[in-house]
Amino acid sequence: MITLFVDTHFKNIAICLYKNNMFLDKLVMESVKNHSVYTMPMIRKILQKNELSVNDIKQIVVCNGPGSFTGVRIGVTISKVLAYSLKIPIKTITSIEMVAANCNNDFVCVPENNGFYYAPRINLDDIKYMKKSDFETFKLNNDCGVDIKINYENLLSIVENKSCCNVHDVNPLYVKKIEALNDSN
């Protein structure tokens, strides 16, 4: 079974393929503000490189955030369209869960342009956002895993026991309030 993984939650786009739950290949590219330009061509490239077609994909796993507002939407939308049109299962994983797999700190932290998303290791669903200036003070008093690399090779082991989602229920995970909504005009 071929599984496609799509991650567009921050500055890098990561596209991975797994065959029978074993890592097969990955493409990673830094793409500041161009995720919509590169994500689909990267999927096509990795499939061609491995002599596969889109119809060979039997499951999709997507990082649904938190992270870049637009980046997350792009990855989730592409994944939903593929899952829906191919009539295949889809699963989600958060960026916090991906980092937590390689982090033993009390708090798991994921950077964002102006701050950090973080959650206590004991409750990875309790995700909060903190600006960089506040986070610097926070990490002085707390055991924070920062700059932890995501191990895409072992990623499926994190989601193997998760249930598949209804494709219509897969949505970006937004934690940070949208700044435009904070205007008082």
Give me the strand/helix succession. EEEHEHEHEEEHEH
Q: Please report which band the strand proportion falls in: under 5%, 5-15%, 15-25%, 25-35%, 35-45% or over 45%.
A: 25-35%
Low-confidence stretches: none
Name the shape in a single word.
globular
CATH architecture designation of the domain at 2-95 and 151-182: 2-Layer Sandwich
CATH topology term of the domain at 2-95 and 151-182: Nucleotidyltransferase, domain 5
Average of the residue pLDDT scores = 93
Helical content stands at: 25-40%
What is the count of helical runs? 5
Look at the structure and name the CATH superfamily of the domain at 2-95 and 151-182.
ATPase, nucleotide binding domain
Give me the secondary-structure topology.
Blueprint: E1 2-7, E2 12-19, E3 22-30, H1 35-49, E4 57-63, H2 69-86, E5 90-93, H3 95-100, E6 107-112, E7 115-120, E8 128-131, H4 132-141, E9 144-145, H5 155-159
Parallel strand pairs: 1-4, 4-5, 6-9
Antiparallel strand pairs: 1-2, 2-3, 6-7, 7-8
Helix pairs in contact: 1-2
Protein model, in words:
The chain has a domain at 2-95 and 151-182: Nucleotidyltransferase, domain 5 (2-Layer Sandwich), CATH 3.30.420.40. The chain is built from five helices and nine strands; from the N terminus they run E-E-E-H-E-H-E-H-E-E-E-H-E-H. The chain is 29% helix and 28% strand. The strands form two sheets. The chain has a five-stranded mixed sheet with strand order 3-2-1-4-5. Strands 8-7-6-9 form a four-stranded mixed sheet. It has helices at residues 35-49, 69-86, 95-100, 132-141, 155-159; strands at 2-7, 12-19, 22-30, 57-63, 90-93, 107-112, 115-120, 128-131, 144-145. The longest helix is centred in the middle third of the chain and has 18 residues, at 69-86. The termini are far apart.
